[in-house]
Specification:
By secondary structure, the protein is of the alpha+beta class. The protein has 3 domains: about 60 residues, no CATH class; about 150 residues, Roll (Nuclear Transport Factor 2, Chain: A); about 120 residues, Distorted Sandwich (Glucose Permease (Domain IIA)). About 20% of the residues lie in helices and about 35% in strands. The chain is built from 5 helices and 22 strands. The N and C termini lie far apart (about 85 Å). The relative contact order is 0.12.
């Protein structure tokens, strides 16, 4: 009786494990199949069961297929929609979606994708397409990109180049300057800009005053990031700014963050921060009518329009020893982008 009641349980366990294995096994390209001797299912202390597996060993291909693909298009409504349409037939939807985000990241420090793009702007991409052994297709890397804005005299270009010590490579413009600027364009993820630099009617005092920074409306508690590498020179409460932090950067420029709810751990004068480090959290301390971040850029103690001040700060040049190889890669990439341009917009 004991044997009869236990054995069905063993069958159920084996069947369940087999079902789970089949469910989580990715689909692979089958190449050869070899039959093996039956396997007897048994458990310690029991006689061999009369339940047999007929297993198969499948030798799957582990080869990844890589090719180069040129994609070009015209923006009518949004960059995502344009890339989604241009990539039909050559990239799956998930890859097209990721490609739009990747292109936005490349030009993050040069173009505000939410405000600077207009109908009729054009893009050209040279990408490395990879097909995995299970058949999935992804964009392995972007080799080059060109973004032609209708309100700009020259197109923006990006060339992917691997420099010593970099595991993923960086993007450079045609002159060899890094597209990764020394500073972030904005110190947080925000809902909207509630007040810009310049004269405005003060929301509390009701009189016209010069607004010395940019106000970013955001939910209370939103992380505030240092816009660049630097040293904290002030962290505390300061009049109408409420909880405020000043960071001095290598070029002598100072970035200021006000009205914060609280500071991140370790933020004190003398603390070193890197670009993107969380320094505090959005609040409404000081003279504030709602949660937002007051952000300033100061040079020699004088406030400057943050958007203009940060836009003019370029990245680092490519190392001199790598320039000959970079120029060779640049010429090849730009030539391929030009061919894509002629093929797609010859009309």
């Amino acid at each position: 009786m004991k044997r009869d009641t236990v054995r069905p349980v063993s069958y159920a366990i084996v069947a369940t494990l087999a079902a789970v294995a089949i469910w989580f096994t990715p689909a692979l390209e089958k190449k050869q199949v070899f039959a093996m001797d039956p396997v007897v299912v048994s458990r310690p202390g029991l006689e061999p069961a009369d339940f047999l597996f007929q297993p198969l060993v499948v030798e799957a291909s582990n080869t990844e297929l890589v090719d180069t693909l040129a994609i070009a298009g015209v923006i009518h409504s949004s960059l995502y929609n344009a890339l989604n349409e241009s990539g039909v037939g050559v990239l799956p939807p998930s890859a097209r979606h990721q490609l739009a985000w990747s292109l936005a990241d490349i030009f993050e420090y040069k173009v505000d994708m939410s405000r600077d793009l207009h109908q009729g702007d054009k893009f050209h991409l040279l990408v490395e397409r990879l097909q995995k052994p299970n058949g999935a297709i992804i964009v392995n890397k972007i080799l080059g990109a060109r973004l032609a804005l209708s309100n700009a005299h020259n197109a923006l270009e990006a060339i992917h180049f691997d420099t010593p010590g970099s595991s993923t490579g960086q993007f450079y413009d045609a002159s060899g300057m890094s597209l990764r600027a020394a500073f972030l364009r904005a110190p947080l993820t925000f809902r909207r800009i509630s007040s810009v630099f310049g004269a405005r009617k003060h929301p509390i005092f009701g009189e016209w005053r010069n607004h010395t920074g940019t106000d970013y409306a955001a939910a209370e508690g939103t992380p505030v990031r240092a816009i660049g590498d630097g040293v904290v020179i002030f962290a505390g409460r300061k009049g109408g700014y409420g909880n405020m932090i000043d960071i001095r950067h290598r070029n002598g420029m100072v970035s200021r963050y006000g009205h914060m709810r609280n500071f991140a751990t370790g933020m004190r004068p003398g603390s070193r921060v890197t670009m993107g480090t969380t320094i505090g959290y959005v609040g409404m301390t000081g003279w504030a009518t709602g949660p937002h971040l007051h952000f300033e850029i100061r040079v020699d103690g004088v406030a400057h329009d943050p958007r203009l001040a940060l836009q003019s700060r370029g990245g680092e040049p490519i190392p001199a020893g790598e320039r000959p190889l970079f120029e060779k890669m640049r010429n090849q990439t730009l030539a391929s982008l030009n061919q894509a341009h002629l093929a797609n917009f010859s009309e």
